[in-house]
UniProtKB/TrEMBL annotation:
Keywords: Oxidoreductase. GO terms for molecular function: oxidoreductase activity. Pfam families: adh_short. It comes from Corynebacterium kroppenstedtii (strain DSM 44385 / JCM 11950 / CIP 105744 / CCUG 35717). This is Putative short-chain alcohol dehydrogenase.
């Protein structure tokens, strides 16, 4: 099979944590996998362990680097791109008055601008690949605004709105746009001083998230293709639907308790 016939996935921020597990999940299935990250040491380790995974450095807040990284990766795929996984993201914790202006800006730049840049730069490749997907990494922190991780929570509301809007905008390009909305995952990102990590626990594994990414880009039928948001655990799925059903004052008080 030629490289242009192999399916492929490009993962931003994929050298560690969730991104790495997504890379390994798709690699196991024989996909061409591209992992691009700002962490040179983690990229080197991944390349050493899996030399056939394509790697490169990428600062997602730099649009030129997005264009260069995608051009580099698609040179290995015959110009095709089946899946872009907008995985890169960071978090800052503590009350907003205790977060530096620099970390506040960085969360917005990476979690919001970086996601838009990735989508825009990838569109020419995705639009010429039948069945293409854009996967955005959202969070259950976007179900209701979370104190003590306020900029992060707000940035994930952005991802939700961006996913909804882009799904409609890209219908003409036949690109399916989806987002995951998990609770806390067992990665360095969950190592924060937020009461919700203790009240809800950090139970989801990166492997579980990777499995849902795999499922999301393999919709089984017409009805599954109409779905655009994915939970990972039973708890975050329950929370997602309860927030839609219960009165807002109850939702507020539940989140007040969870957030401490």
């Amino acid at each position: 099979m030629s490289t242009s016939q192999h399916k492929n996935i490009f993962i931003s921020g994929g050298a560690s944590g969730i991104g790495r597990e997504v890379a390994l999940r798709f690699h196991k299935e024989g996909w061409i996998v591209g992992v691009y990250d700002i962490d040179a040491a983690a990229l080197e380790e991944l390349s050493r362990d899996y030399p056939d995974i394509i790697t490169g450095e990428l600062d997602v807040t730099n649009y030129n680097q997005w264009e260069e990284a995608l051009a580099d990766f698609t040179a290995h795929t015959g110009g095709r791109l089946d899946v872009l996984d907008n995985n890169a993201g960071i978090i800052g914790d503590h009350d907003i008055v205790d977060q530096s202006p620099e970390i506040i800006k960085k969360q917005c730049d990476i979690n919001c601008t970086g996601v838009i840049y990735g989508a825009r730069a990838a569109h020419p490749y995705l639009s010429r690949t039948p069945g293409a997907h854009l996967v955005n990494m959202g969070s259950a922190a976007a179900l209701y605004g979370q104190p003590h991780i306020t900029p992060y929570s707000a940035s994930k509301f952005f991802v939700t709105g961006f996913t909804q809007a882009l799904d409609l905008e890209w219908r003409k390009s036949k690109i399916r746009v989806v987002a995951l909305q998990p609770l806390w995952v067992q990665t360095a990102l969950a190592d924060v001083d937020a009461a919700s990590t203790k009240r809800l626990g950090v139970r989801i594994t990166p492997e579980q998230v990777a499995e849902v990414v795999w499922k999301a880009v393999h919709p089984a039928n017409f009805f599954e293709r109409q779905r655009h948001f994915y939970s990972v655990s039973g708890l975050d799925l329950t929370l997602r639907y309860l927030i839609r059903l219960v009165p807002s004052f109850i939702t507020r008080n539940v989140n007040k308790f969870v957030a401490g």
